[in-house]
């Protein structure tokens, strides 16, 4: 009997920091099983082998910030049977989506010595704004255990068990004492689970790395932050980080005045 | 039977006696759990000795606020209930139900090894005894007994403590669940502390409790000691932080599903699920199935869930309770009304945790009062 052929995997990078791809390499103990189950055909970060498409599964990191990348993601989609985005950049536009709130030409002029060499779009947008996406794995960066869950689910043909509820539920399961009730502002109630409530476990408020949860009641949370003494400007900044362009966070950040102290 | 008519056997122990109690339990192979100060809160965890108890600490609890404060005495149990409840031990947040393995011989399923652990809980409050009794109904009554819960529950040794301090969000008096521990314990302590003494009145609630008491240095309790203990409990009862009118409450909630107050609370509620997680009676879980990369093993994991998640009411093609309004209404109506239809008691023991640990301080007693005050279908007669 011949070896059953392994599904071919590609890992793509768009505008991003590489942190999410590194989560795959971080699966040290599991990497061999990954390689046994999947033919890693295209993964420039890990190997110089550049297998040709088509691919059964493409993992896409990063957002779309150039016309060239907007074209490239279409090609990736055309060559991939399943496309899964990994991380806040690919699912929400990432920290670089802060440009969406300002004039990108001002940034370019301020940062580069020769701005005329820079060709960039006015916005940073998630992959789903350009092509259909089969599954979005959240996080900045993603949690490697969740990545393994997505890969295992894909191989078994089942739905990944990835919950979309608040971080608070993970926080309570973990037995943390709620920092918000003790006076520290926390984004956990409006943030998508996935990290296992890491920051509250170390007595910090949640920074919202996984973006909005399924039904984010951001206005209600912002009111409570205000009564904890957080200034409107700080509230705006809190919602405007790795997931600044995610709809619910964008709207809430725009509701708070940047000028107020 | 009137408790006064037939007093339980009682004795006195001092702080050394309390240490001896912990030692005796550990000696009998129990994992002793009790209150201690950590992360600026009083949590339940493994307890080696009385030095770890939060001596001289109390807490200030309000809706959505919790802060530790010093007491002006050295009471060991001078606070109410904190963020944890005993639920996390009897009904753990994450539990593997089975694992499966596939090899050349076929597919085999295996139940997890039954835990060897026997818990001894020190400092269980009256409301918590009632919460445990409520979860007993859920997990042990009827044809489908939860085997894991049954094993942990059967082995548990319970040392109750009568509350000497009412929390700012407590309302056990309204729910008739406290502050005095009436049943469901092996031993019950009342802390007796003044300028002359620091003792504990010990009441015996079971044969196992009586046997354990025999191993401790103790002396007989007199009538004055019993009276002192009764005074402690009476003072606590008079200082409840909250009150809930339970008269007709079930009908009030069930008759008013369209009350405008549900829209009002939906504006404030985060749908975060903290209230259900913190509640000592909420029992809902979800199961997740995981398979590994090679497709040779799989497991089913059960985790605490909440009626505030969308997945909780997911039927094919969508969630039944899409709105925060529908989800808050489900939580509160289940706790205070439909629980009675389902299990014959209220699902609320008045511990106040859902009030304190709601990040935006939504208060179940205040919501109930607001509905009562303005319910169109409600006549207080
Ligand atoms: S610490 Fe943050 S994440 Fe944890 S329960 Fe409190 S609000 Fe939620
Ligand atoms: S509903 Fe609230 S007050 Fe009642 S038992 Fe649950 S947590 Fe305690
Ligand atoms: S209130 Fe919600 S989480 Fe609690 S037992 Fe009822 S349905 Fe379950
Ligand atoms: S009532 Fe409070 S704790 Fe419960 S889901 Fe709403 S905001 Fe969260």
Short overview:
The complex is a heterodimer of chains A (261) and B (381). Chain A contains eleven helices and five strands; from the N terminus they run E-H-H-E-E-H-E-H-H-E-H-H-H-H-H-H.
Tell me the layout of helices and strands.
The complex is a heterodimer of chains A (261) and B (381).
Chain A: E1 8-13, H1 19-25, H2 28-37, E2 39-42, E3 55-61, H3 67-78, E4 80-86, H4 87-92, H5 104-111, E5 135-137, H6 144-156, H7 167-174, H8 198-201, H9 218-227, H10 232-239, H11 247-254
Parallel strand pairs in A: 1-2, 1-3, 3-4, 4-5
Chain B: E1 10-14, H1 15-27, E2 31-38, E3 41-46, E4 57-62, E5 65-70, H2 87-90, E6 94-103, E7 106-110, E8 119-124, H3 126-140, H4 147-155, E9 157-161, H5 172-175, E10 187-193, E11 198-204, H6 207-214, E12 219-220, H7 223-237, H8 249-254, H9 261-268, H10 274-278, E13 285-291, E14 297-304, E15 314-315, E16 318-319, H11 324-343, H12 353-356, H13 364-374
Parallel strand pairs in B: 2-8, 8-9, 9-10
Antiparallel strand pairs in B: 1-11, 1-12, 2-3, 4-5, 6-7, 6-14, 10-11, 13-14, 15-16
Helix pairs in contact in B: 9-11
